[in-house]
Target: DNA-directed DNA polymerase
Amino acid sequence: MDVTKKSLVGALKTTADLLDLLGVGDDPFRAQAFRSAARSLEGVQDEVDVLAARAFAGIPKVGKAIAADLLEYVRTGVFGPLEDAASLIPAGVLSLFRVRGLGPKKIRALWDAGIDSLEGLREACRDGRVAGLKGFGAKSAASFLEAVEFALGAQERQHLSTAHEVSEGLCRVLEGLEPQVAGDVRRGLDTVRVARVTVTASPEGVQERLAGVVEGLEPVGKKPLFAGRVDGVPVEVAFAPTPGVRGALDLMMGGGTAYRESLREEAKVRGFDLSGHGLIRAGEVLDTPTEADVMKTLGLPLRPAEYREPEHDGVWEALPHPDELVTVADLRGMLHTHSTWSDGAASIADMAAETVRLGHGFLGTGDHSRAAHYANGLSIERLQAQLKEIRELQGAGVPLVAGAEVDILDDGTLDYPDDVLAQLDYVVASVHSLFTLSPERQTERLIRAASHPLVTILGHPTGRLLLRRPGYALDLDAVMVACAERGTVVEINANAYRLDLDWRVALTWRDRVKFAINTDAHVPGGLKDAKYGVMVARKAGLTPAHVINTLEREAFLAFVQEQRAGRS
Model:
């Protein structure tokens, strides 16, 4: 399996957290060294093979020892410092990192108090032990109880990006066997239980390819299926021993439980038996090499993979054909991006260069406003200096539009005055604080911001972090009504940890508001996350016409001017 830059950065960051948790050794700066190396590596544009070819030399903050460990990770898939640190920490304690609000310092305090698992933390929050710990208190205990319940419910799922990378990696390992990504990843679900792949091969051929790649590889009963784990992620590889049964296998591996059961029932009513072993009638296995062949034989329409959820029942036939849905290639503007002006890891020029290299048309800046002090948010003076740089780069031919991600304050007003906002080409308004306001206040707050005459896009509208925290409580429909009435664009944040707006909401509102698929990229590599936002959009039946950043630069600027003029 290939090691990605994302996995390298993740290994460095996790190692730093674990070293902070352990607090061992005679070098108090070791954890910070890994953390600094991670941030520096994020800002490097070269791919892993190029970095490995030069043994990770020449990267700021990446010393010889860490460079050697990174090179070994690329070669073996094992990051030694992380393995060493993790071996000193019980698995239950490691699971506490899944709880929102818990960092190494607080986890250490819990561990020292004998609280060493998610279940143990839940009980300790309930019985008062957490409230009694120094630095916690009753309010913290209540907050952690809610967060740990969420973590327990999410612990069997993976982020779409993680499962996608694992699935794609398996496809590379299985090259030549007609591998296809299947299951939750193929359908673009926001979180994934199992990374699935289908192939045309004998069971022996599958086992041979996956030996040493998939941990604990085992057949699953009498099913044409092997299961195991890759880097802790559950995986399943289903095989069609002959091409003629591949269509049935792909259908059975290409939908959720409800979809599979409904198909089996439809087949049964028509005198067929449908399973991963093939489409069978009167004991004869029919030749159906594709999903379309199976459905034609059954006399049923083929339901696109994007539309195989219960929420699509009764509506999918009226949605656009997959060939009409938005693609990554349709995106011209990479809006809502960050740079070293706030908390990004690359310059505006470098982010723009990567945007063009990826085949898009222009970059929209979106650094944080002054209230986001934790993210090096820009004062008005610094914003003016940034605007000067942007205009100079534009004059030099760099395809840019000048924007900002402006904080929505507690009363729904914005973090910059109107005369400053008016100098920007576009504005993203987002919530980054006060997540626990009452639903009524939170709703009023977002409606006021979404109704502002200079707000172009409402950023990550619910504030959710998948598998980490739910969105804040609010009347989302009321906010969407305000966006529809004012012509405010709603963001589909493509960061795989957000994927906010949820596809189900986008499906409901697809014909009433416009959307922007934004990466929220803080590093050049983050621009590639557009694919996850596109997956969300496709599940919602969105075409390029629904998405404003499919417009070319001049058309986008004209859209913003028309939007502002319509509100005056």
In short: The chain has a mean pLDDT of 94.
